[in-house]
Design goal:
rod-shaped; 2 strands; two-stranded antiparallel sheet
C-alpha cells in the first residue's frame, strides 16, 4: 500500500510541476495571440485613417463649391473652395444651417441647391 501512495505522490508532484510549465506556455501563447490581434486592428485603423485623409484631400481639392448637409439642413462639411468663397474656415461652417450660411436660402426653407 505504501508503494501505491508513493507512486501517486510522485504523480501529483509531477503534475504540479507540469501544470506550472503548461500555465506559463498558455500565458505566453495568450499574450502572443493578443499581440497579433492588436497588430491587425492597428493595421486596419491605419488603413482607414489613410483613406479618410485621402478622401478629405480629394474633397478639398475640388474647385466647385461643395456643401454636405443633413436632413435638418445643418452643414456637416464644406470644401475649401466654398469656405474661401464664404470667407470662413471650413470648420466655422459646420453645424450652421443652410439658411444662415448661404445667401439664397430663405430662413427655415429647404436648400435650393439640392436636387431631389
Amino acid at each position: 500500500m505504501d508503494s501505491w501512495n508513493a507512486i501517486f505522490a510522485d504523480a501529483a508532484s509531477f503534475a504540479e510541476e507540469n501544470a506550472a510549465v503548461i500555465f506559463a506556455i498558455l500565458a505566453t501563447a495568450a499574450v502572443a495571440i493578443a499581440g497579433v490581434r492588436y497588430m491587425r486592428l492597428h493595421q486596419r485603423f491605419t488603413r482607414l485613417e489613410r483613406a479618410q485623409i485621402e478622401w478629405l484631400k480629394t474633397f478639398d481639392s475640388i474647385e466647385d463649391l461643395i456643401l454636405v448637409h443633413d436632413n435638418n439642413y445643418q452643414v456637416v462639411r464644406v470644401n475649401r473652395a466654398l469656405a474661401e468663397r464664404l470667407g470662413r474656415l471650413p470648420v466655422e461652417a459646420v453645424g450652421k444651417t443652410c439658411d444662415i450660411l448661404l445667401p439664397r436660402v430663405a430662413p427655415g426653407g429647404t436648400c435650393p441647391y439640392c436636387v431631389r
